Amino acid sequence: MPEAAFEAVTGFDALRPSSARIYDYFLSGKDNYSADRSLAERLRRAAPGIRVLARANRDFLARAVRMLSAEAGIDQFLDIGCGLPGRENVHEIAHREAPGCRVAYVDSDPMVVAHAQALMASGGETTAFQADLRAPETILHDRRLRAVVDLERPVAVLMTAVLHHLSDDEDPHGAVARIRDALPPGSHVVLSHAEVTPALRRAAALHACADAPFVPRTPDRVARFFDGMEPLAPGLVRAPRWRPDTCGARLTGAGRVALLAGIARIPA
After folding, report:
1. Which of 107, 170, 222, 259 has the fewest CB atoms inside 10 Å of its own CB, making it the most exposed?
2. Cα(191)–Cα(61) distance, integer angstroms
3. How would CATH label the architecture of 49-198+212-265?
């Protein structure tokens, strides 16, 4: 689709910073625009550790997918707020551990979905579609999800670095609870979330001009996302400290990375 037509159909605006494209920039990606890079640099000056936070999130996601597919026997993944494709995407990691894993990518950003459909959706094992975490039922009941993921069997729902882009008024805890209640026993919820620090408060104020808010939360409020579930060891911790491997060990000052991360299981 020509760029002008894409903009007309989706409402895409390259002049307004996008949280997905800012994240892509912090990961040294190429799918970002001048407005995204400008705001990203302002965020970096306000919160110098924010680029490390993005990388720590990506490393945690990889470790989580490897563990769930290799150790927990999970062969279905629903990645909500998947972001732009990069290196080591969920389906690539999962397929190395357990060939035949099925992955559904979901994002509210039309540009993200267009890239995901072009680069990641293939055959009958992977799909990508546009939907919004604020309305979880539209994700769970979507025919494209049901064509790939069987919600009668255990599934891992990934919500990494996405819940802090929902304001309190948008009820992120309620959205996660509705997803939890739709999952069968043995399913897992994977999440990461920015923690409140003075630097990230400054970043949040700057982020107000982007397409989504940035809302760091305290550890107790992040822990509430796991209500009704059984957290896996070591619980909710700073992302580099969640079962670190050589990727996590590369990060200096791991305990200062203000990104909380964890995995919880839906009990029988």
Report:
1. 170
2. 9
3. 3-Layer(aba) Sandwich (3.40)
Rounded Cα gap, residues 268 and 259, in angstroms: 29
Between CA 50 and CA 97 the distance in angstroms is 30
pLDDT category, 8, cuts 50, 70, 90?
very low
Instruction: Give the position of tokens 């062969």.
Output: 75
Q: What is the mean pLDDT of residues 85-99?
A: 89
- Map tokens 């882009």 to a residue: 165
Q: Max Cα separation, the chain?
A: 50
The tokens of 145 are what? 């999800």
**Quick one: pLDDT at residue 248?**
45
DSSP 229: S
Question: What DSSP designation does 230 have?
Answer: E
Other beta carbons less than 10 A from residue 155's beta carbon:
26
Cβ-based neighbour number of residue 186 at 10 Å: 15
Rg (CA), the chain: 17
Return the H-helix or E-strand segment holding 76. Answer: strand 76-80
192-215 pLDDT, tens digit per residue, is 999 999 999 999 999 999 999 999
Q: What is the pTM of this model?
A: 0.92
Are 228 and 52 within 8 A, CB to CB? no
